[in-house]
Amino acid sequence: MRLFSAVLSTAAAGGRRLRRMVFRRHPMRFFGLPRTKFDFAAEVGDGTGSSTVMAPLLWVARTFPEAPPALWEKLASGQEEPVRDHPLLRLLERPNGFYTGVVMWMATMLDWSVDGNAYWLKLRDRGGRVVELWWAPHWMIEPRGDEQTLISHYEYRVSGSPWLLPPDDVVHFRFGLDRDDPRKGQSPLKSVLREVFTDDEAANFTASLLRNMGVPGLVVSPDGAASPSPEDVAAVRAELKARVGGDSRGEAIVMSGPTKVQQFGFSPEQLLLKELRRIPEERVTAVLGVPAIVAGLGAGLDRSTFTNMAEAREAAYESGIIPTQRIISEDVRWQLLPEFEPDPFMWRFGFDLSKVRVLQEDLYRQAQRLNLAVNGGWGEVAEARRAMGLEVRDTDRIYLRPANMVEVPVDGGGPRALAPASLNGSGAISGNGHASAAEVADEIERRLDRRALLTT
User: Fold this and answer.
1) 215-249 pLDDT tens trace
2) How many CA within 13 A on the CB side of residue 138?
3) CA-to-CA distance for 362 and 340, rounded, in angstroms?
4) Cβ-based neighbours of 347, under 8 Å, separated by 6 or more
5) Which in 189, 285, 336, 424 has the greatest CB count within 10 A?
6) Per-domain boundaries in the chain
7) pTM of the model as a whole
8) Rounded to 5 degrees, what are φ and ψ at 355?
9) pLDDT in tens, 47-58
10) Residue 265 dihedral angles phi and psi, to the nearest 5°
11) Helix (H) or strand (E) holding 262
12) How many CA atoms lie within 13 A of 330 on its CB side?
């Protein structure tokens, strides 16, 4: 306990020193991939040049905008009320005059998945109100700060010239926090750049074989004591490339003298290129949270069927897209919503999952559970409508309970009706239920008598 108190007092007295510790790099951190000094990042870049990377990334970019942005206001009762029309939702639907909100979300998700950072720029009118949003490529903008301030400004480079932007004019989406620089997010792809390089090399090897002769390299040597001249070597090489390469693959060639032709290297079958390319597909899709079967890669299609494809898509959305939406939503809530609402604590930003086709079965099961609660008499109609994203009216604050049921208090009191004497259209009693059973029966008899008089 004394040690803990000493740490707290030291932190309080030396706040500046504590802030410096936040930015200090780990002394044992190894920069790069383990057990190699080869710079794979310099060879493959950010990985977007690889089809193995782009296949799951494009699935994420296409799928993420399927659920439109949504906004809920928190009520004093603890419930949440969906807001259908709001300036924030309008801005996200049409952020500027050049592209739609769907396009902006697609670009944002690519940057967020590749670099771990995505940026929006806020454009304001003369009154200081945010009227436009612009996506900024992650390689053009960099958060800056010092030992006193985590992020003092953002440096946005246009044609080599830096523009210094205040943090309030930038929406910064982070994939967690980078251990080397807590101002930024962590790139998910950095750990699999070696696998991406392996896949690229396998693709280049296959392309080189097909570009040359369709077979591994050959060694052509004279089968005798005579040594060919440099001119003869050049002529034979050109003749081989012309006769058995390109569009002339498979043509026969006859040498004028004793010649040995030997294979140099391994054939594609010996290298097992198909199996070699499976490992990068598995690792990359695992890191990005998209099953290989959903991305259309061979590592998943080998075991795919029509039945498990739907389950895989649903699992990919639940384990990949929905957690991503939750992370992104909090950044919008705290960095963009305050431009329109003074207290973000009283609001929740998210995405409307009722528009997602792959989750419709889950929504159907949710509706069944809510319907069971309402018909059972222990759930309000308003609660069910609110949970399904429907408009809630004051008339929905009711319970639906059968008229032939009464409540028996545990204190030994007399039986009471579960609802006041008010019939609904289905014959059930609606209300909060404090009338006696006799009162309910009398009310039903009076209404029946009135109906008989009206029909005579």
Assistant:
1) 555 666 666 656 777 777 777 777 766 666 555 55
2) 21
3) 33
4) 71, 72, 73, 74, 333, 337, 341
5) 285
6) 218-264, 360-455
7) 0.65
8) -90, -5
9) 777 878 888 889
10) 100, -165
11) strand 259-263
12) 8
